[in-house]
Amino acid sequence: MQPHIMDWDENQTFPIDLFKQLGGLGLMGVLVPEAYNGAGLGYLEYVTVVSEVSRICGAIGLSVAAHNSLCTGHILQFANEEQKRKYLPKLATAEWIGAWGLTEPNTGSDAMNMKCVAKQDGDHWVLNGTKCWITHGKSCDVAVVIARTGEVRDSHGMTAFVVEKGTPGFSGGKKKISSACVPPKPPK
Question: Residue 163 needs a FRET pair 20 to 30 A away by CA distance; which of 25, 80, 103, 141 works?
Answer without folding.
Answer: 25
